[in-house]
């Protein structure tokens, strides 16, 4: 518990940095999604009470105030609250927006004894859940939101796709094969191990070996903090067509789309490859080495996202393949499976499992 408190302190300190907020404000797909959603559904904000969880500079609170909100509570745990308060006053919105310099969970009597109509927050992290700020938003929802209240964003989908990372491999791994005429290839494996895990960078649309698979849908009106502790997604299937061109799989890319559902319509915020770039980029779980793809195979994955026990702000991502469990069942001797694969089998599943288990 004490360690997680230290982690939280460092987390909030990191947001007292104008460079961080500059990046987020200059992220037009991100900021305009909120602006467009609030303006499109301004009828939902007129004369309503709003909480902005993690308000930062206060930009979302200002959007809500301009849309006609009666009162906006801008909750900010970092020292950015001071700047936020000044910006609210400078823009003559201090009669509507009340800035509270506290973490959401520390609020006592700063919010008047009333339920609020809307909760807005830009809490999303890499692969949606990184930073675990959603927990604070759900705390606000459970304590302050009316039964028919609105959550912005309202829901999200997470997607997974096998990806080719040839450019990354050439730049960071294959480079070692020929260094000024010398063979440094023994450093290729440690170089791969030193890449950030997971790897966060932009993916081009043509890096997707197959069409993405929607693996999880999340409703922010109903999901609980307990459900966020350990997220397990089973039976993620990918079918490789017979006529697919030969490609290499280096890993699996993850991204998300958020939806803002209001009375007048829904606005999407996409972080998908091929859509306008955002500061979330895409997250890739790299395999130990590339796997050559042959058509006609079906592959089943299992993804587990678990909050780290020492740092709840991050998740441990674990990609598995169900053959591991199937082999354990076969060893029990209860079944005589005539489809058991030889140790030297070169099918796609077996190649991935061999590489992934190294």
From TrEMBL:
Broad EC category: transferase
One GO cellular component term: plasma membrane
GO biological process, any: methylation
SUPFAM superfamilies (alphabetical): S-adenosyl-L-methionine-dependent methyltransferases
Entry keyword set: Methyltransferase, S-adenosyl-L-methionine, Transferase
PROSITE patterns: SAM_MT_PRMT
Protein arginine N-methyltransferase domain sequence ranges: 155-321
Coiled-coil boundaries: none
CDD domains tied to this protein: AdoMet_MTases
Keyword hit for Methyltransferase: yes
Pfam families xrefs: PrmA, PRMT_C
EC number: 2.1.1.319
Region listing for Disordered, in residue ranges: 321-344
Catalytic activity field: L-arginyl-[protein] + S-adenosyl-L-methionine = N(omega)-methyl-L-arginyl-[protein] + S-adenosyl-L-homocysteine + H(+)
GO terms, molecular function: histone methyltransferase activity; protein-arginine N-methyltransferase activity; protein-arginine omega-N asymmetric methyltransferase activity
PANTHER family tied to this protein: PROTEIN ARGININE N-METHYLTRANSFERASE (PTHR11006), PROTEIN ARGININE N-METHYLTRANSFERASE 1 (PTHR11006:SF102)
Protein name: type I protein arginine methyltransferase
UniProt lineage: Eukaryota, Amoebozoa, Evosea, Eumycetozoa, Dictyostelia
